[in-house]
């Protein structure tokens, strides 16, 4: 089942410019971003699909800030993680986890109702 709810497919194909380091910028398609996680304040790790593997880049931004800038095909599933719905393989029946590739990621209690609402719209 495809879980993508990106109503604006062109929006998911547009590029985002990531600032990596002091002066290096990189252009990445939204559709290539698999997930974004925050381990430390103002430090995000962005995992993206690059040909056959997944690589990561670290940028200095808050998860809340970048969440507001992403198209609607990205789901915030807990306080530390945003996933691209195009890369979600499975959502559990109780909406307590999602599977992205071989990773099982917990959905936070306060984010389950939002995820349920998104998926009800897709049916």
From TrEMBL:
- For this UniProt entry, which residues form the secretion signal? none
Single annotated GO MF? DNA binding
Which SMART domains is this protein grouped with? LytTR
The record's listing under InterPro entries reads: LytTR_DNA-bd_dom
Question: Where on the tree of life does the source sit, at the highest rank?
Answer: Bacteria
**Which Pfam families does the entry link to?**
LytTR
Residue intervals of the HTH LytTR-type domain: 23-120
Please report the name of this protein according to its UniProt entry: LytTR family transcriptional regulator
Originating species: Phaeocystidibacter marisrubri
